[in-house]
Design brief:
78% of the residues lie in helices and 0% in strands. The chain contains 11 helices and no strands.
Length: 197
Protein backbone atom coordinates (compact mmCIF):
# COMPACT_ATOMS: atom_id res chain seq x y z
CA UNK A 1 0.00 0.00 0.00
CA UNK A 2 2.80 2.39 0.94
CA UNK A 3 4.74 1.70 -2.28
CA UNK A 4 1.61 2.14 -4.40
CA UNK A 5 0.79 5.40 -2.65
CA UNK A 6 4.32 6.69 -3.29
CA UNK A 7 4.06 5.77 -6.97
CA UNK A 8 0.64 7.37 -7.32
CA UNK A 9 2.01 10.53 -5.68
CA UNK A 10 4.67 10.72 -8.41
CA UNK A 11 7.54 9.56 -6.21
CA UNK A 12 8.63 6.80 -8.56
CA UNK A 13 12.31 6.80 -7.61
CA UNK A 14 11.36 5.87 -4.06
CA UNK A 15 8.47 3.62 -5.01
CA UNK A 16 10.01 1.44 -7.71
CA UNK A 17 12.36 -0.63 -5.51
CA UNK A 18 9.51 -1.24 -3.03
CA UNK A 19 7.08 -2.18 -5.79
CA UNK A 20 9.63 -4.58 -7.31
CA UNK A 21 10.29 -6.34 -4.01
CA UNK A 22 6.65 -6.74 -3.05
CA UNK A 23 4.74 -7.51 -6.25
CA UNK A 24 5.44 -11.26 -6.44
CA UNK A 25 4.58 -11.87 -2.76
CA UNK A 26 1.17 -10.22 -2.67
CA UNK A 27 -1.82 -12.48 -2.11
CA UNK A 28 -4.46 -9.75 -2.42
CA UNK A 29 -5.12 -9.76 -6.18
CA UNK A 30 -6.46 -6.21 -6.36
CA UNK A 31 -3.40 -4.89 -4.56
CA UNK A 32 -1.12 -6.98 -6.78
CA UNK A 33 -2.78 -5.50 -9.86
CA UNK A 34 -2.47 -1.96 -8.47
CA UNK A 35 1.19 -2.48 -7.56
CA UNK A 36 1.95 -4.00 -10.98
CA UNK A 37 0.25 -1.18 -12.88
CA UNK A 38 2.02 1.41 -10.76
CA UNK A 39 5.26 -0.50 -11.36
CA UNK A 40 4.77 -0.39 -15.13
CA UNK A 41 4.13 3.35 -15.01
CA UNK A 42 7.14 4.07 -12.79
CA UNK A 43 9.49 1.75 -14.67
CA UNK A 44 8.49 3.42 -17.95
CA UNK A 45 8.95 6.89 -16.50
CA UNK A 46 12.39 6.00 -15.11
CA UNK A 47 13.31 3.93 -18.19
CA UNK A 48 14.05 0.83 -16.12
CA UNK A 49 13.31 -1.69 -18.85
CA UNK A 50 14.14 -4.83 -16.84
CA UNK A 51 11.72 -3.78 -14.13
CA UNK A 52 9.09 -3.00 -16.75
CA UNK A 53 9.43 -6.55 -18.08
CA UNK A 54 9.09 -7.98 -14.59
CA UNK A 55 5.85 -6.09 -13.93
CA UNK A 56 4.51 -6.95 -17.39
CA UNK A 57 5.20 -10.63 -16.70
CA UNK A 58 3.15 -10.50 -13.49
CA UNK A 59 0.31 -8.72 -15.26
CA UNK A 60 0.35 -11.28 -18.09
CA UNK A 61 0.31 -14.21 -15.71
CA UNK A 62 -2.25 -12.94 -13.22
CA UNK A 63 -4.54 -10.61 -15.18
CA UNK A 64 -4.34 -11.73 -18.80
CA UNK A 65 -8.02 -10.98 -19.56
CA UNK A 66 -8.35 -7.67 -17.75
CA UNK A 67 -9.02 -4.83 -20.27
CA UNK A 68 -7.23 -2.20 -18.19
CA UNK A 69 -4.17 -4.43 -17.90
CA UNK A 70 -4.18 -5.24 -21.61
CA UNK A 71 -4.37 -1.54 -22.45
CA UNK A 72 -1.38 -0.76 -20.22
CA UNK A 73 0.55 -3.72 -21.66
CA UNK A 74 0.02 -2.48 -25.22
CA UNK A 75 1.80 0.73 -24.29
CA UNK A 76 4.45 -1.03 -22.21
CA UNK A 77 5.41 -3.33 -25.08
CA UNK A 78 5.38 -0.39 -27.46
CA UNK A 79 7.80 1.45 -25.17
CA UNK A 80 10.03 -1.64 -25.00
CA UNK A 81 9.94 -1.93 -28.78
CA UNK A 82 10.88 1.73 -29.19
CA UNK A 83 13.73 1.30 -26.72
CA UNK A 84 15.10 -1.74 -28.58
CA UNK A 85 14.79 0.14 -31.89
CA UNK A 86 16.75 3.07 -30.47
CA UNK A 87 19.41 0.74 -29.11
CA UNK A 88 19.76 -0.94 -32.50
CA UNK A 89 20.05 2.45 -34.20
CA UNK A 90 22.70 3.59 -31.71
CA UNK A 91 24.80 0.44 -31.48
CA UNK A 92 24.59 -0.97 -35.02
CA UNK A 93 23.00 1.55 -37.40
CA UNK A 94 24.62 -0.01 -40.49
CA UNK A 95 23.93 -3.62 -39.60
CA UNK A 96 21.73 -5.94 -41.62
CA UNK A 97 19.14 -6.16 -38.81
CA UNK A 98 18.93 -2.33 -38.78
CA UNK A 99 18.46 -2.30 -42.54
CA UNK A 100 15.82 -5.03 -42.24
CA UNK A 101 13.97 -2.98 -39.65
CA UNK A 102 14.04 0.03 -41.98
CA UNK A 103 12.73 -2.12 -44.82
CA UNK A 104 9.90 -3.44 -42.64
CA UNK A 105 8.98 0.12 -41.65
CA UNK A 106 8.95 1.20 -45.30
CA UNK A 107 6.75 -1.77 -46.18
CA UNK A 108 4.28 -0.95 -43.40
CA UNK A 109 4.11 2.65 -44.62
CA UNK A 110 3.37 1.51 -48.18
CA UNK A 111 6.75 2.69 -49.48
CA UNK A 112 7.09 -0.46 -51.56
CA UNK A 113 10.01 0.62 -53.74
CA UNK A 114 12.13 1.70 -50.77
CA UNK A 115 11.36 -1.54 -48.92
CA UNK A 116 12.33 -3.60 -51.96
CA UNK A 117 15.54 -1.59 -52.38
CA UNK A 118 16.49 -2.24 -48.72
CA UNK A 119 15.66 -5.95 -48.95
CA UNK A 120 17.77 -6.27 -52.11
CA UNK A 121 20.66 -4.46 -50.41
CA UNK A 122 20.53 -7.01 -47.57
CA UNK A 123 20.77 -9.83 -50.12
CA UNK A 124 23.70 -8.10 -51.84
CA UNK A 125 25.56 -8.09 -48.53
CA UNK A 126 24.46 -11.59 -47.51
CA UNK A 127 22.74 -13.71 -50.18
CA UNK A 128 21.84 -16.34 -47.57
CA UNK A 129 20.21 -14.01 -45.05
CA UNK A 130 17.06 -15.86 -43.90
CA UNK A 131 13.61 -14.39 -44.39
CA UNK A 132 14.44 -11.75 -46.97
CA UNK A 133 13.34 -13.63 -50.10
CA UNK A 134 10.10 -14.42 -48.26
CA UNK A 135 9.62 -10.72 -47.48
CA UNK A 136 10.30 -9.79 -51.11
CA UNK A 137 7.69 -12.31 -52.24
CA UNK A 138 5.18 -10.95 -49.75
CA UNK A 139 5.93 -7.44 -50.93
CA UNK A 140 5.37 -8.42 -54.57
CA UNK A 141 2.05 -10.05 -53.69
CA UNK A 142 0.89 -7.08 -51.57
CA UNK A 143 1.95 -4.22 -53.81
CA UNK A 144 -0.78 -2.20 -55.49
CA UNK A 145 -0.36 -2.21 -59.29
CA UNK A 146 2.16 -5.06 -59.41
CA UNK A 147 4.00 -5.98 -62.62
CA UNK A 148 2.23 -8.51 -64.88
CA UNK A 149 4.53 -11.37 -63.86
CA UNK A 150 4.38 -10.61 -60.13
CA UNK A 151 3.26 -14.13 -59.18
CA UNK A 152 6.14 -15.70 -61.09
CA UNK A 153 8.58 -13.27 -59.42
CA UNK A 154 7.10 -14.05 -56.01
CA UNK A 155 7.33 -17.78 -56.67
CA UNK A 156 11.03 -17.44 -57.58
CA UNK A 157 11.68 -15.51 -54.36
CA UNK A 158 9.86 -18.14 -52.30
CA UNK A 159 11.81 -20.97 -53.89
CA UNK A 160 15.03 -19.11 -53.07
CA UNK A 161 13.84 -18.74 -49.49
CA UNK A 162 13.22 -22.48 -49.21
CA UNK A 163 16.77 -23.14 -50.42
CA UNK A 164 18.03 -21.00 -47.53
CA UNK A 165 15.48 -22.19 -44.98
CA UNK A 166 13.86 -25.50 -45.96
CA UNK A 167 11.64 -25.36 -42.84
CA UNK A 168 10.04 -22.00 -43.73
CA UNK A 169 6.35 -22.88 -43.39
CA UNK A 170 5.27 -19.40 -44.49
CA UNK A 171 7.07 -19.75 -47.82
CA UNK A 172 5.55 -23.20 -48.39
CA UNK A 173 2.09 -21.90 -47.55
CA UNK A 174 2.33 -18.94 -49.95
CA UNK A 175 3.65 -21.25 -52.71
CA UNK A 176 0.62 -23.45 -52.04
CA UNK A 177 -1.68 -20.46 -52.30
CA UNK A 178 -0.09 -19.38 -55.60
CA UNK A 179 -0.50 -22.93 -56.94
CA UNK A 180 -4.13 -23.07 -55.75
CA UNK A 181 -4.94 -19.78 -57.47
CA UNK A 182 -3.32 -21.08 -60.67
CA UNK A 183 -5.46 -24.25 -60.48
CA UNK A 184 -2.51 -26.54 -59.78
CA UNK A 185 -4.22 -28.38 -56.95
CA UNK A 186 -1.69 -31.21 -56.72
CA UNK A 187 1.15 -28.78 -56.03
CA UNK A 188 -1.09 -26.75 -53.71
CA UNK A 189 -1.86 -29.81 -51.59
CA UNK A 190 1.81 -30.80 -51.53
CA UNK A 191 2.88 -27.29 -50.43
CA UNK A 192 0.14 -26.99 -47.80
CA UNK A 193 1.05 -30.40 -46.39
CA UNK A 194 4.71 -29.43 -46.20
CA UNK A 195 3.77 -26.15 -44.49
CA UNK A 196 1.81 -27.98 -41.80
CA UNK A 197 4.68 -30.45 -41.29
Amino acid sequence: ENAASLAEAGRCSEALPLLSRSVAHLTDKELQKRVSLDGVRCATLLQRWDSLLDFARVLNQQFSHDPEVLYVLVHAYSDLSNQATQQLALTAPNSLPALELDAEASELQGRWDQAEKDYRKILEENPHYPGIHFRLARLLLSKPNPPPDFQDQAKRELLEEIKIDPANAGAEYVLGEIARQAGDFDEAVQRFNKATQ
